[in-house]
Structure formats: C-alpha cells, structure tokens
Specification:
eleven-stranded mixed β-sheet; 14 strands; alpha+beta
C-alpha cells in the first residue's frame, strides 16, 4: 500500500464544517433518549450548594456530553473536546467545553455520586426493557463482584494510597484508586455493570460489598422478579455481609472462602476416592503461579460457615485441587486446594465450572481500562467518582447499541463497537431541508450500523395507559 497522489504542504486543511467524525453517536444518543437517560439525570442529580455558582447548572446535558465522549473513546476530560469538531454540534445539541464539564465533575461529593449511582441503576433497567441486553434473565442471572486497582501518579490525587494487586500472578504494592464493581450477565449475554463505587487504594476489597450485592440483586429483581440469581465472588467477598445479602435477596451464592483451620480440617476429611477429575473446556490461568492449566480434581463436603455467629449457615464446600507446578519432581503429588462455598444444587463438577466463569467480570474491567478508565482524570476524589459512574453508564449504553446492531456485535468488546459502529465518518447534507448522513461506501460493517439506525429511528414508544 502506498500514497496514490502527490500532496503539497497546502493540500491538508481543517475547514470542513459538515463532516461528522462519529456518526454512530446519532443512533446511540437516540437510544439514550428512548431509555429516558436525560430525564433520569435531571430527576436524580441535584447539587444544591456548589463551590462555583454556575458549576452545577444543567447537569443533565453536561453529563450526557461526558457519557457521549466516553462512547467515542475519550479517556480524559480534555479528550471530550472531540465532540465540538466538524458537524457534530450540528447533529447533537448542547455540547459543552471540557473546562465546563470539569467544573461540574469537581462539584460532586459522596452524596452526589450516590445520586449518579441511582441514575446508572435505573437506566440499566430501562436499557434491558428496550433491548435484548440481558436475554434469558427470566431463567438465570449471574451477579459477579470484584475490584481493581487503577494506578495513579503524583501527590495531587485525593484518596490515592498504596494497595495490593496482582500483576502477572504476583502480588505487588501499587499506589492508586480502587473501584468496586458488580456485573449482571446471563448464559447467553455479555456482562453489564450493575453498580460501581470508587474507593481509596488501600481499602480492603470486601468493604461495602454487602450493600453492593443487595443493590445488584434489587436491580436484577426489577428486571425479572422470578429470575434465579447466582452471586459469585473470590475470597475477598466470602464474608458474612455478602452471604447475608444473598439470603435476604433470596439469591444463591458461590463464594471463595479464605483458608483457615476449619476449612483445612474440612478439606482433610475428604477421602481420596471422592475426588472427581474435571477437564475445563479451555485452559484457565492459575491464580497463584500464573501458569495455564486445563485439568483438575474436585470434591465436596458439608461445611458450616460463620459457626460462632448468628449468621451461621451450612452448605456445600466444593474444593478444586491441582498439582503444584512448583514441585514437578516430588515423590508424591503435591496438591494446592481452592475451596468455594455454595448453596446451589448443581453437581460438583458443574458447580466448579459455573463458579470459574466468574472471571467474566475481567472482560468488563478490560473494556473500561481500554477506554474511559485508562486514567483517573481529576485530582478530586468526587470528580473521579462521577467519572467512574459515567463510564459505567457509557459501557451499558454502548453494549445495548451493540445488541441492536445484532449478530456478533451483541457480545463484542467496547473497543470493537467504537471502531466499527460509533467512529464512522459521515458528511451531513440537507437537500430540501431533509438531513441526510452520507457514510463511506463499502463500509465493512454497514449492515450492522443500519440495523442500529433503523432500530432507533423507527422506534415507536408504547402508548402510556
């Protein structure tokens, strides 16, 4: 491939006012309007005592500008300026300058972030009602919970502190901020974010998990009252608060338990002939060594958790064991044990496979890190909390648009949806005062884009009773 024309220094000019860089924003924001996102923000977000008098004015269009910028790939406040270029302000109303948006975000406090969290949950319910975002939720829903540590640098980040995280299977100490997230998925749909909360980097992973699980269960029940819900989490979330929230919400749980003397005794009580070999459909990564394994052995034993408290509960302790790759020449097999506590009625092998699919939440984190959470853009903790929640709303909105686009876009990554559906250039023309978007001919994903376009432009809302 080579350049086919001879250009000069004057051959490139930034002078096209009718060029729309992100034509996919038009149906995307149409979907946001159909699911009442502007109205929900206006109803729930209210900053009564702003630091700057005009800083909290018009929160709905300003936050929508932030969300739209994230959907096209913005990962900092300055990046939101891409929405003011070319013909985008012609096809989209109320596009604000990055400085104005940053002023609004810095007005957010803990309580205002909770308001935006309520917006995110209600909008997810609206998206699920409007699209097949969570197809099959009437039968089975999975709620996964996990946290991550986003590194920050310098001394100007409020709440930044040193916390432990894993990099390439090794524990490292890193300075950063720690979002805690819950996701909802079904056997046939990609995970969406049920809730996010930003915390200091040194905060324990399980802090606040009980309330987050309770809210995620309530959100799932609002979408399907009779859904069979399974809550999954790793060892940081195998605590009383999470189990109590599951029992109150009438949800099943599958939670990794931190090893202690009682669990060790329960594992030692398993007879050798009770272990059943299991081979995973694909290789999985060992959480301790980082090595890839494809087979293991599982067994189960009754176990009473939290025995000395009022929350004591007896259920199944399912144990998976794998040979320790660090001892390949041992005379006898050296096993490493990974127990999890569950009250499901699945067979032992199936319970282990279903539990290990909890790793699906990592795909959500990968999407966010490859997009709006590449950076924590502000020095204020409240602004970063609002940024994280806007990222969650943008993630769900983008995947709902992918569901309307159909086929493989229904389960595509956020970066794929941005590249193929959203960041499509178009030229705006208005013959006879009728707006028309002229998109590139032979665009490889034109059928998917047109499905999204037709699903949003031809949508007729139901008549209210």
């Amino acid at each position: 491939m080579r350049v086919s024309h001879r250009f000069t220094a004057m051959s490139a000019r930034f002078d096209e006012d009718n060029l729309v860089s992100y034509a996919g924003l038009v149906p995307l924001l149409g979907l946001a309007e159909q699911t009442r996102l502007p109205e929900i923000i206006a109803e729930k977000v209210s900053i009564k005592t702003p630091r700057i008098k005009s800083g909290s004015a018009n929160p709905a269009p300003k936050l929508l500008t932030v969300i739209a910028g994230m959907c096209v790939g913005a990962d900092s406040i300055d990046d939101l300026n891409v929405l003011r270029a070319g013909g985008i302000p012609i096809v989209v109303d109320h596009v604000y300058a990055p400085s104005t948006l940053g002023t609004l975000l810095r007005e957010f406090s803990f309580g205002h972030a909770r308001q935006l969290e309520s917006v995110q949950r209600e909008h997810l319910i609206g998206l699920a009602a409007r699209t097949e975002l969570l197809a099959g939720i009437d039968q089975q829903a999975f709620i996964d919970i996990d946290s991550l540590l986003r590194p920050v640098y310098g001394h100007a980040k409020q709440g930044a502190s040193y916390g432990h995280t894993k990099v390439s299977g090794k524990q490292v100490l890193r300075k950063g901020l720690s979002p805690l997230a819950t996701t909802i998925s079904t056997p046939t749909s990609a995970p969406v974010i049920a809730g996010m909360r930003l915390r200091a980097g040194k905060t324990g992973s399980g802090k606040g998990a009980g309330r987050m699980i309770a809210q995620a269960i309530a959100t799932t029940r609002a979408m399907s009252a009779d859904a069979n819900i399974l809550v999954r989490g790793d060892s940081a979330f195998g605590n009383r608060a999470v189990v109590r929230a599951c029992r109150r919400g009438k949800a099943q749980f599958s939670l990794v338990m931190t090893k202690n003397a009682a669990i060790s005794r329960a594992i030692d009580s398993i007879a050798e002939d009770q272990w059943t070999p299991v081979r995973y459909p694909g290789a999985v990564q060992d959480p301790d060594t980082g090595a890839w394994i494809s087979d293991a052995e599982v067994a189960e034993v009754p176990y009473t958790a939290f025995a000395s408290t009022k929350d004591r509960i007896t259920a199944r302790l399912v144990v998976r064991r794998v040979k320790d790759a660090r001892c390949p020449d041992a005379l006898f097999p050296v096993w490493r044990y990974h127990p999890f506590f569950t009250n499901t009625d699945l067979p032992t092998v199936e319970a282990d496979i279903v539990h290990r699919r909890h790793a699906i939440i990592e795909t959500v984190f990968a999407d966010l890190i490859d997009g709006p959470l590449a950076h924590m853009p502000s020095g204020r903790f409240g602004a970063n909390s609002a940024w994280v929640l806007c990222a969650a709303i943008a993630h769900n909105l983008l995947h709902a648009a992918g569901t309307l686009a159909g086929e493989r876009h229904a389960v595509a990554r956020g970066a794929t949806l941005r590249r193929q559906i959203i960041t499509v250039p178009a030229r705006l023309a208005r013959p006879a005062r009728t707006p028309i978007l002229h998109l590139p001919s032979r665009w490889p994903w034109a059928p998917a884009w047109l499905r999204l376009w037709q699903a949003t432009t031809n949508h007729s809302p139901p008549t209210p009773a």
